[in-house]
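Technical note accompanying the year-one report. For the benefit of new consortium partners, we illustrate the data format agreed upon in the data management plan: each record pairs a sequence with a structure-token string. No post-processing was applied to the example shown here.
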Amino acid sequence: MNVPHKYGLLRAIAFVLKLLGWIVLVSGVIGAVSLAMVAVVNRTGAAALLPQAVGLAGTGMVALLGVIWFVQLYAFGSILSLLVDIEENTRALAER
């Protein structure tokens, strides 16, 4: 199966989307951990219970949004890679 590669830009876009997905996931985890540390360390009595609860809820939301964006970006990059591979395999089959 010696088929020339086509759609190089589409392959690059797929790679960039997958890489961007990993960057978003890592920054989401770092953001959630740092926000949790700020929420836990920033206790100064009974009046700080509500801001601490809001900070911990925000931590969960940052982590959840990081995971959701990772899944979306990585899945779209994988779909683009899949479509390019399908096109190559179809062209190779047609040449046989």
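Partners are asked to follow this layout when depositing records. The mean pLDDT is 86.
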